Amino acid sequence: MIKLSRILMVFALVGCATGSGFFAQGFKLRPYRDVTLKNGLKVTLIEDQSLPYLSLGMLIRVGSTQDPDSQRGLADMVAELLDKGTKRQTATELSDSMAQYGGEFNASAGKDATYLTASALSFHEEKIINHVAEIVATPSFAGVEIDRLRKRKLAQLKELVDEPEYVTDVAFEALLFAKHPYGQPSQGTAKGIRAIQKKHIVKHYLQYYRPSNAHLAVVGKLSPQILEHLESAFSKWEDRPVKPIERLAFPEVEGSKIWIVDKSDLQQAQIRFGHKGIARDNPDFIALRTASAILGGDFSSRLMNEIRVKRGLTYSIRSGFDTRLGEGPFEISTFTRHDKIGETVKEVLRVVREYRYQGPTEQELKEVKSLLKGQFPRALETPESLASNLLYLRFYGVPDSYLTTYLNKVDKLTTEEIRRVIKLYFHPENLKVVVYAPQRKALPQLEGVAPIEVVRPSQFQ
User: Fold this and answer.
1) How many other CB atoms sit within 10 Å of the CB of residue 80?
2) Is residue 203 in a domain?
3) CATH number (domain holding residue 221)
4) Cβ 442 vs Cβ 341: under 8 Å
5) In terms of CB atoms within 10 Å, which of 86, 89, 256, 457 comes out highest?
6) Tell me: the pLDDT tens digits for 323-343?
7) Domain that includes residue 441, residue range
8) Which pTM does this prediction carry?
């Protein structure tokens, strides 16, 4: 996840700050400037004179984690309804006006936050800003649009049920997180989407869509009037106090367990392994990301070497920590032939146990350091990627200096430090396993590995 020009001083700003820096090895971070509008909306401005474009990204501090149990999918429905009509324009009128100047708008909700994006040629700076402000500040949530979106989302869920990777991912988080909101899909469930009414949508919007609960990034060829345009466009978006999102504790469930999600006609088995991970603001994030990359981060990783290269059990296998506002999952993902399910599960568990107790070699650490340092600049090569990185880092409470010190911190990592975080955060004895495959083929191969429960795909619709 993971990503200025002179400012006219005629506007009363609540706060003003500039940020810039240099990466280790001479990598320069683009300059950016932070301001706060009169209504409390924080804005990050990033100038890019290379092309005549403008893009906006807005992070709203609410995600599917805040969906009520009976209304799973609410946050994502609200996000998708934003540009389906405002108090001034219908959905068609909004679409037509955006098309006239080649603009685009998208919005979706994740586990922790909702992210909106818009773009247009910089010649239309004032128009695209006004467009986004109107959508965010005055959505109408027309009943006909709610019904239309509900039908479309229910149809999409039916299609996703036929996607083995989707079903396995949803089942994995349901097993790992139990009743924790992270165990529910951000897209929602059919039952939840059917239950969502206009009153729920309006309540959610009024509760969370406030200037002080959002952060906007504006990137591109900015005019000298950029702040004037922003202040004017967003002046009608009124602020209200918003209750901070609470971090919910990860459910402490000890021991391993296997779910076999039974589907008789699958062509191959999808498999997930995982246990409790870390939150994004954990100080061991970089060391743990490096440790995970050694285990299953690229083609030369241990899991790839042992499971694919030596044994030919799969074409692809990877591991990683999905870090969130609260503790997210550590996950290993792969697939295999039906007759190799048992061998694949046992070999993955063996590799993780050995890695937990042996740690990395000096050569493994050296190779992964080169990989991570090579990937990092590419992750920030565009102004938009810098903007999204800044928004999410601040949302998760990680200082901007993470970007300026990353390469240096990776360079300084030692095998002793990697061993320390492996011992602290890797727990093979607590790995939960989800196998999406025909029960008759999977069950005999997995008996004795861990306690087994057979579940149905319909549980995850």
Assistant:
1) 18
2) yes
3) 3.30.830.10
4) yes
5) 86
6) 999 999 999 999 999 999 999
7) 257-460
8) 0.90
